[in-house]
Design a protein that fits this description.
mainly alpha
Length: about 170
């Protein structure tokens, strides 16, 4: 009897651990999709809450309040992009011009120290084409992040419509 109790007790402790490990192994490849969906749910809940607030304050039906909230967000974001785009473009041009010189200067400063020389070996060559390639990679990663942000907003808009009854 005592042996069976130990086995059952051990099994009851091992099963949740094995289940958790299997769950992590199954969900690990899908972490980006799950994070994307979670962010969309957060945006949807936020939109639903703002819609409720606007509907209560303005006595609009929820469908019109939701349209007003989404329209306002689109107009505000469009205005921010409209006003910031020239500044961002000018700063990007300046960054493209100054980046190779700054990279060479960084290598010179790091070359003064032993640990810095080890780090310099990891940096790309100071030629213009290599530094422009590195800058292009950074800028494309930034554009990809903005694209994913737009995707999350679209999912959030959809989930806001789906989760928030508009009648």
């Amino acid at each position: 009897m005592e042996i069976n109790t130990r086995i059952v007790g051990t099994q009851s402790r091992i099963f949740p651990c094995i289940s958790a490990v299997l769950l992590v192994l199954l969900l690990w490849p899908a972490w980006r999709v799950l994070l994307f969906a979670f962010a969309g749910i957060i945006i949807g809940v936020l939109l639903c809450g703002v819609t409720d607030f606007v509907a209560r304050r303005t006595n609009l039906i929820r469908g019109l309040a939701y349209a007003l909230v989404v329209s306002s967000i689109v107009v505000i974001m469009g205005g921010v992009v409209w006003f910031m785009a020239p500044h961002v473009a000018a700063q990007t041009r300046q960054l493209i011009q100054d980046f190779p010189r700054s990279l060479r200067h960084l290598k010179q400063l790091l070359g003064r120290y032993e640990i810095g020389r080890d780090l310099v070996e990891l940096l790309p060559a100071a030629s213009t084409s290599d530094s422009i390639g590195l800058l292009t990679h950074v800028l494309s990663s930034t554009a990809k992040a903005f694209g994913e942000l737009v995707g999350v907003l679209i999912v959030g808009l959809y989930l806001g419509l789906w989760t928030c009854p508009l009648a």
